[in-house]
Write a structure and sequence with these properties.
The structure holds three protein chains of three kinds. Chain A is α+β, with helices and mostly antiparallel strands. Chain A has helices at 49-56, 81-84, 101-111, 116-129, 145-157, 175-192, 203-209, 227-232, 237-243, 338-344; strands at residues 9-20, 23-34, 38-42, 64-69, 72-74, 87-90, 163-167, 195-200, 212-217, 220-226, 247-257, 260-265, 268-273, 281-286, 292-294, 307-317, 321-327, 331-337, 351-355, 361-367. Chain A folds into two domains: 9-246, Rossmann fold; 248-367, OB fold (Dihydrolipoamide Acetyltransferase, E2P). The N and C termini of chain A lie close together (9 Å). In chain C, helix 2 (20-53) packs parallel to helix 5, helix 4 (74-85) packs parallel to helix 9 and helix 5 (100-124) runs antiparallel to helix 9 (172-178). Classes of the chains: A alpha+beta, B alpha/beta, C mainly alpha.
């Protein structure tokens, strides 16, 4: 998107409620899905993530609610087939048909009445894209977990959906497989500029895939906003405890050599370890326990990496240690013991030096920018 | 060999379905109602093979389609009582008389007769061969407690057998040596042969099986063993839906000279003697 | 033992000389049981799928009835169908008692609960979210039902075989409603009973062998189809 473009709201849900047996399991006053962006839904089991996805995909009839897609009202209750054919959903289980991989991927096209010739032209490209071209003739029963989920994803994407809904698509895979598939999916979503809504338990997945994040609890959205913002500025204790404790800084690589690179983040430059090229976007995540505070402000010109002066904005006691939020031009969260606070006489408004090693930065690549 | 797949199998089933339904339809055509004639008769009559000869002749001549339902005399008359048959060909005189008396049947006419025989194991443990009459033979069997197989199915044969026990003043029911098979004549004979017991059988069925049975005739010729066949039309006044015309046509046919001629010669070639004796027009035996 | 050998000899003789009566009886058995099985498939698969996919008050009762129906004694069916088809019975006006149609009807009543019950179980056995996934792929309700039935095709083939097996071997109801009329409503099973009753064991055995061969042949084809589809 070009700066200055007003974000296009692809799907808007209003006053969405789902009741099950008298209990309200989903209660969303308003939710907008923005074109070209990925929205991550994160929350504990039973928070309503799956229910929300099913409702948005028109697979579950809400007790009440209004939807508009591209400005046009859609009837959530009656199962609008036209709408369902413009979106796609992938579940935690691959849910493949008892047929070959090719036939599975072609299923959505066949349902839409696409002819054999057209299918033969379109499907191979998607098999290639998802890395399963060599499995085209294989029976779905003989696939590994990762291969099956790739097939399910290819099946969803081949119909060129305007929105893809993903319900914890990687939860049932083992970590190495998850890692590879996550990377592939992230790349494909970025390259095709797909709009997606994905639920996940894993914050790293959210960080890698999503532009916006919504934290859910007992059927409500507790906080929604850009990923870094939700993680760095949790709205309340629940969100804070759920989303993890790293400081997340979006940035762009300036220079890189010998496996160490410098990224420009809002308010400064961070050095971190990784093989990245200039221009690539990254998320730099720093765990609060990896940051050291000192009251010595070194003179400018030192060779210390990742040393930032900052003003203490807030100190929150958290039991064994204290949570200190610094303003270094960017928000930085630090965990400090009570003793250290006393010894350094740390208090709100004081300026201190925060430093952390380049190796302490957890780097999440976000790839080359779209244009 | 055709390579079967689910798709091919399904298509094949669809084609087979249409084919079958197409073929089944003509087989289901019952024809106009008045052409159907339900003849209730006994298994022994059917088993003799006589009807296999007579029915086609009747059908060809009259155009009726005869549905021969072979059950026991008892069940045949029960069907008649309900109006579910049009005409009966049975051989259970006492029951038949009651049937007509109660108004269920009309035009009871004598058709033919054959006889029953008492057969049993060659060893003849109850020594009935020398008995003066069938009634006496039955008394001897009871006294000796020798195994006796009864059809026990209210057929004409069963009715005759019960009549003989009554005449002998014996009630065999529940006695250890008296077993009721509930089966047809042929099967009952086989059971008797297996278990080396006595039984009452119609000559026709026995003749057709005797080669393999090993159950010689031990008593025959007694007047009480006479087995008379009658044709009775179900009363159309009581049951308007019966095919009264068909019943009349069948009755006339059975009594006709030509039919009686066929009856007279039936079985001679195969068994060396006739299985039935024509009686149309003759006075009743009782 | 000689009896069985005699029976086998007789069977081959009847088959190879294409004995007209035996041929007629065999074809009629196929026609009648085949038609009944197909009717039971149409009704059974539709009803079974519908019940499997829907929720309605009293559903539990309906499922119990279907399961009970699977074990319905064929003679009971025969008795009730006969009573209904009697001239003076409620369906007497149809005038199909003692016709092959009546046998098809009785056999369809016997086979339909079997097919319904197996279909119901197999559709319910599919993954719970598969229905949603199919809808998510843009299927209409009709397409969804069709795809679900396709997914359950392995057990459905078993249902076909169970239904067919149940009726090709049925004798009690077939005699009662068909009347075992020579050349018209006599099928392999009823003919076997009749010949046994007459004591013609060699013919009875021959007919039994033909019935077994027929049944085996058809099931062999169905099994081949089914096994081609199985997980390997």
């Amino acid at each position: 998107m070009n700066p200055g473009d007003k974000p296009l709201i692809l799907l808007k849900a209003e006053e969405l409620q789902v009741k099950r047996g008298g209990t309200l399991v989903l209660d969303i006053p308003v939710l907008e899905i923005i074109a070209g962006q990925v929205l991550a839904l994160i929350g504990p089991n039973g928070a309503g993530k799956s229910t929300l996805l099913l409702t948005l995909a028109c697979l579950l009839k809400p007790s009440r609610g209004r939807f508009s897609f591209n400005g046009r009202e859609i009837d959530a209750g009656r199962g609008d087939v036209d709408y369902r054919r413009r979106v796609a959903m992938v579940f935690q289980e691959p849910l493949l048909f008892d047929a070959t991989v090719f036939d599975n991927v072609a299923a959505g096209l066949r349902i839409r009445g696409v002819g054999r010739a057209e299918i033969g032209r379109v499907v191979p490209g998607y098999l290639e894209l998802f890395g399963i071209a060599h499995l085209a003739k294989r029976s779905a029963r003989k696939l590994s977990g990762g291969e099956a989920q790739r097939t399910s994803l290819a099946r969803a994407f081949v119909t060129k959906p305007e929105i893809v809904f993903l319900d914890e698509p990687f939860s049932s895979l083992d970590p190495p497989t998850r890692e590879v598939l996550l990377g592939d999916l992230e790349r494909i979503i970025r390259e095709t500029r797909t709009t997606a809504v994905a639920s996940t338990h894993d914050q790293t997945e959210a960080l890698r895939l999503a532009d916006r994040m919504a934290v859910m609890n007992v059927g409500k959205i507790v906080q929604i906003g850009p990923v870094a913002e939700v993680i760095n500025r949790p709205a309340d204790g629940f969100v804070a405890s759920f989303v993890g404790v790293e400081t997340v800084l979006p940035g762009r690589v300036l220079r890189s050599s010998d496996g160490v690179f410098t990224a420009a983040v809002e308010g400064g430059e961070i050095q971190a370890v990784g093989h990245l090229r200039p221009g690539e976007r990254v998320l730099c995540c720093i765990r609060p326990e990896h940051v050291t505070l000192s009251t010595n402000i070194p003179p400018p010109g030192t060779s210390a990496r990742n040393a930032f002066p900052g003003t203490i904005r807030k100190i929150t006691p958290l039991g064994l240690f204290h949570r200190v939020r610094l303003d270094c031009g960017f928000d930085l969260v630090v965990y400090v013991t009570r003793q250290s606070i006393e010894e350094l006489s740390l208090e709100e408004g004081k300026t201190v030096m925060a430093s952390f090693k380049a190796t302490a930065v957890h780097v999440i690549p976000r790839g080359a920018p779209p244009n | 060999m055709i390579k079967w797949s689910a798709k091919r199998g399904f298509t094949a089933m669809m084609i087979a379905a249409l084919f079958l339904i197409g073929m089944a339809l003509p087989a289901c055509a019952a024809g106009p109602a008045q052409k159907n004639l339900i003849l209730a008769t006994t298994t022994s009559t059917q088993d003799s093979g006589l009807l296999d000869v007579l029915i086609p002749v009747f059908e060809k001549r009259t155009g009726y389609f005869v549905k021969t339902i072979a059950v026991g005399s008892g069940q045949a008359m029960a069907m008649g009582q309900k109006g579910e048959a049009d005409v009966l060909l049975v051989h259970s005189p006492d029951a038949e008389k009651k049937f007509v008396a109660e108004g269920s049947g009309v035009n009871r006419m004598i058709v033919m007769h054959n006889d029953f025989i008492v057969v049993g194991p060659p060893a003849d443990p109850a020594a009935i061969k020398g008995a003066k009459s069938t009634v006496e033979a039955f008394k001897k069997i009871a006294a000796a407690g020798s195994l006796f197989l009864s059809r026990g199915d209210n057929s004409g044969t069963h009715a005759k057998e019960k009549g003989i026990w009554k005449a002998a003043g014996i009630n065999p029911e529940g006695q250890k040596w008296y077993q009721e098979t509930g089966l047809g004549m042929g099967q009952t004979l086989n059971v008797a042969a297996e278990k080396k017991g006595y039984t009452l059988a119609d000559r026709g069925t026995w003749l057709s099986l005797q080669a393999k049975l090993g159950l010689p005739i031990l008593k025959e010729g007694d007047p009480i063993l006479l087995n008379v066949y009658h044709v009775i039309a179900v009363n159309p006044a009581k049951w308007p839906k019966v095919n009264a015309d068909g019943a009349k046509a069948f009755s006339d046919f059975m009594l006709s000279a030509e039919t009686q001629g066929i009856v007279k010669t039936f079985g001679v070639e195969k068994y060396g003697g006739p299985l039935f004796f024509p009686d149309a027009g003759k006075p009743e035996y009782d | 033992m000689d009896l069985i050998l005699e029976g086998i000899q007789k069977a081959f003789f009847l088959i190879f000389t294409l004995d007209a009566e035996v041929l007629g009886i065999t074809l009629l058995s196929l026609k009648v049981s085949g038609t009944a099985t197909l009717i039971s498939l149409f009704i059974g698969i539709s009803v079974g799928t519908a019940v499997a996919l829907s929720r309605f008050p009293g559903r539990q009762l309906v499922v119990s009835l279907i399961n009970t129906g699977m074990g319905l004694p064929p003679v009971v069916v025969g008795l009730f169908v006969t009573i209904f088809l009697w001239r003076n019975g409620p369906l007497g006006f149809l005038e199909i008692l003692y016709t092959p149609t009546a046998i098809i009807l009785a056999q369809a009543v016997i086979a339909t609960p079997i097919v319904t019950g197996i279909t119901l179980a197999s559709i319910q056995h599919l993954p719970a979210n598969l229905r949603l996934q199919i809808l998510a792929l843009g299927a209409t309700r009709v397409q969804m039902v069709w795809l679900l039935v396709k997914e359950a095709r392995l057990p459905l083939f078993a249902a076909v075989m169970a239904g067919f097996g149940g009726v090709i071997s049925e004798v009690g109801a077939s005699i009662m409603v068909g009347g075992n009329i020579k050349g018209y409503s006599r099928v392999l099973t009823t003919a076997t009973v009749m010949e046994t009753g007459r004591g013609n064991f060699d013919i009875a055995i021959a007919l039994s062998i033909i019935l077994l061969l027929l049944s085996f042949f058809i099931n062999a084809i169905l099994t081949q189809i089914q096994q081609r589809e199985r997980p390997r």
